[in-house]
Amino acid sequence: MSVALHTLPAVVGSGPAVGGLRARRLQPRLAPLRASSVETASAVVVSLNAEVEVEKKRDEPADVRGKVVVEEAALEALYDDGFGRVTVKEYFAAARAISTDDGGPPRWFCPVEAGQPAVDNAPLLLFLPGTDGVGMGLILHHKSLGRVFEVRCLHIPVNDRTPFEGLLQIIESSIKNENGLSPNRPIYLIGDSFGGCLALSVAARNPQIDLVLILINPATSFSKTPLQPILPVLEAMPSDLYVTVPYLLSFVMGDPLKMAMVSVGNNLSPPETLQKLSDSLTSMLPLLSELADIIPRDTLFWKLKLLKSGAAFTNSRLHAVQAEVLLLASGNDNLLPSGEEADRLFKSLKNCRVRYFKDNGHTLLLEDGANLLSVIKGANMYRRGRQRDPVTDYLPPTSSEFKKTFDEDHKLFHLALSPVMLSTLENGEIVRGLAGVPDQGPVLFVGYHALMGIELSPLYEEFLREKKTIIRGMAHPILFGGQHESSRQELSRFDTISMYGGLPVTPINMYRLLERNQFVLLYPGGVREALHRKGESYKLFWPDQPEFVRMAARFGATIIPFGFVGEDDVLELVLDYNDQKSIPYLREWIESINQEAQRVRDSVEGEDGNQDMYIPALLPKVPGRFYYLFGKPIEMKRMSNVVRDRKSANEVYLHIKSEVENAMSYLKRKREEDPYRSIAQRALYNASWGITNKGKKGTIS
């Protein structure tokens, strides 16, 4: 690879695309980008106890009421994000190509692989590199991030000696220029190690600019590095021995096995995986010695001094950081105490969340298991305006995310349960699969919420796999706020819910989803149903509020009632809400978390309105099987009278509730007839006929 960067000031501009890099002119711009599309949406006000009303823009004609067009992320479900195709070998090749000093100052470049964003008004993303300074540390993520961000990377030439505050001025000049052109567009600063110090310092000095910081093992803890005792030894080391230093440091900075695993497929057999890993590791290890060329002796010592001054400068200004911060910390970082630093910054910064990667090393962005875009999406940190819009800022799951979730993380869970999906055609016939579900929205799924929402994962997978349909699940707001996260918060089920379409259950969110012809999942029973007590399996806790029926009628949506059974074949409830309320310590904990949680049913009396959160104590059972039945579609476009006639709406509401109960009764009867309900029988069948036939036996319709 032949790469050259033009010798031009960082804030002025640069040249054409060269060898995989595209130089970027930062100023002047011919014209600012369009204002945030989120701001062009009409303000929507929805009442649960009154008519659905919409406050329209003053110049909007009345005949298009309910048809507001909003620019949204123009990406299809399971689009190809390119993640996983680039390896550490490409990093070394690119770093070697641009590390040749051209005598120029620090400057920005746009990676050609990032391309043009596929979404309107994509936010700007500035990558601030680690100690190497080459700016290629994001190379594994260029393509995936480039679909939804305008990506630029800072390159600091190998012999550049710009002090820390000088680098801050270069970055500040760029963000001030961009903010002046698009004041409503957020600017993301991705700070890797030393770049984390730069990002925090820029945020502290510019609280008036809308910044979002993504910090990866920030070097604010450099004074506590385990390498401190040997730094004087490095400075005294003879030049002819220096070639060994970067090679040794590479093993301290990152995990070679994690780096090599990036290019290893996830669906290989154990022997194939071992062979592929061996080949990848063998080809990668010789490249580590090239760090001596990327970071020469004098440059390394300068960088160490820069790290020391940068960390001190940043730590003295942490109190002034107002920006949103997402901190990615590695538990196996041998260069910095990143876990302990995450604890400190989590407490010190006003608005900081953490994602902890316990098995990764310092070079997290170059290692397997960390898809940066997925982490941002899971933490609900992607936005295109000043406030995140859960409807228009949502990004669909990518093909690599789908494979990671359902072909790896949830694979054994789904194999053990072998879910059966049934749907009902318009003529009432029940068939295997989702043929009875419409292909076009708006569609509103209304059903039973199983214990702990255990039914969700197979449901999401099947709709994506069979129909490439995203189900936007309405969930309790507590799942999205991050109030109960810790400084060692690992990627969790809550992140997965957000990635696959979950959003807070509010009338306005539901209104705007149906307005955009989307597929919406609603559980009228809410938390009370999902966290039911002993002896309440398959019991509905629906309040007497038919407003979702009227809203569906307003948009001519299709309502699909559905039932689910199987939780009692998988889990046994040991300690429920009533049991825990009788234990003093647990009672106090339940009361404390519910005092802080947003209330969603204060107006509903009785048990239907009891939405207290708690964590039930569960014991696993030998797995049975999951069964789903999607009932006959109910076309609301033929029921315009329901919008204003509460009595008619209530009749439809009771009909839907009855259909859900009938679906569960049907599934309970039919599973008794299923010869493959037992995992033992399914295992025997799979052993005889192969696991790919797992869904073809045991049809219960």
From TrEMBL:
It holds the Pfam family Hydrolase_4. GO terms for biological process: triglyceride biosynthetic process. Residues 182-367 form the Serine aminopeptidase S33 domain. InterPro entries: DAGAT, Hydrolase_4. Keywords: Acyltransferase, Transferase. It comes from the Eukaryota. The keyword Transferase applies. One of its GO terms (cellular component) is membrane. One of its GO terms (molecular function) is diacylglycerol O-acyltransferase activity. Belongs to the diacylglycerol acyltransferase family. This is Serine aminopeptidase S33 domain-containing protein.
